[in-house]
Amino acid sequence: ISQGIQLARVQDLVRYWGSDYDWRNAEKELNALPQFITRIDGVDIHFIHVRSRHPNALPVILTHGWPGSIFEFTKVIGPLTDPTAYGGKAEDAFDVIIPSIPGYGFSGHPTDLGWGPDRVARAWDTLVKRLGYTRYVSQGGDHGSVISDALARQAPKGLLGIHLNMPATVPGALMKGINSGDPAPADLSAPERNTYDSLKEFFGRNAAYGAMMVTRPQTIGYTFSDSPVGLASFIYEKFAQWSDSNGEPESVLSRDEMLNDITLYWLTNSGASGARFYWENNNNNFSADAQKTKDIKIPVGITVFPKEIYQAPESWSRQAYPSLTYYHQVDHGGHFAAWEQPGIFSSELRDAFRKLR
Questions:
Q1: DSSP for 168-206?
Q2: Which of 82, 118, 125, 142 is catalytic?
Q3: Which of 154, 279, 353, 356 could pair covalently with 160 via S-S, beta carbons 3.0-4.6 A apart?
């Protein structure tokens, strides 16, 4: 995969997509869930909303990233809303809200500028309040992480805490060194050095996709909108590279699951509009300084998955988030944590938010 996803793998995926895959099964999966559209700040927001049968369930808003979608979270709806059916306790139940970020999936595609993390965060608070909730928590990875960070900085009334699986913990000075390709400073601990080196490798060899979308989302968007094979190969590479699968994404996600996500991007023409979120955010996903994490005062929980793009050291996490109340490293899972490891993910949310109920 050093030069990109292999031709034979793309051919196999596309052949299956054209001959055996059935989008109608994805429709059935989604249509079995309560879905809604509401207009907020001039844009239609599509979301799934599942209430728990257990009393006093804690509302949680789950935000996807790129190249994910609402499909990332469908496997955790059951464990979160009905924990007793999955070996958990009724007092750990959640009401689950899963919106599509503007520009993604069945949400509207903004035609004006400014739909970055801060504006989406304000829309999420409006959505939760519109559903009648007065208290809630937020969870996210990738884009969902920066949106949850933004929510926490804004600290709207009723937001009790956030949980992140791709937090922004890298100190600003170290981020500059990583971007410049400098050797790791000698005073870093072993976990910090490992993270520094892995991020240097990521930005040096694996982050071209982000550079394209940060600088020219419209241009790369033509490819996404014109070529289903181009779109599929671009996304499939990330499934292979970012999942905990040793480059074999089918070992953790079925072809149908991956194609559900890819097809959603294709059918809703979300390639360019989804890429535009990178332009709005300027790809500031890892820098604690860029995300102003020290301004966050409400409780923060972090779960580190071993095959995430980078593993946030506890030292950096506590420095970046002074209000950190939960930090845990787990043994399995990658960038698509809820999708790959729904059991672990659900357990982590229960543990992280238990004291906030």
A1: --B-HHHHHHHHHTPPPPTT--HHHHHHHHHHHHIIIII
A2: 142
A3: 356
* CATH number where 345 lies: 3.40.50.1820
Phi, psi dihedral angles at 243 (to 5 degrees): -90, 160
pLDDT digits (tens, 9 = 90+) for 132-167: 999 999 999 999 999 999 999 999 999 999 999 999
- Do the domain assignments include residue 192? no
104 is a catalytic site residue: no
Question: Number of folded domains in the chain?
Answer: 1
pTM over 0.70: yes
Answer yes or no: 278 catalytic: yes
User: Of 136, 278, 310, 326, which residue is the catalytic one?
Assistant: 278
**Is residue 179 included in any domain, yes or no?**
no
List the domain range (segments joined by +) for residue 346: 7-170+207-356
Tens-digit pLDDT profile for residues 66-102: 999 999 999 999 999 999 999 999 999 999 999 999 9
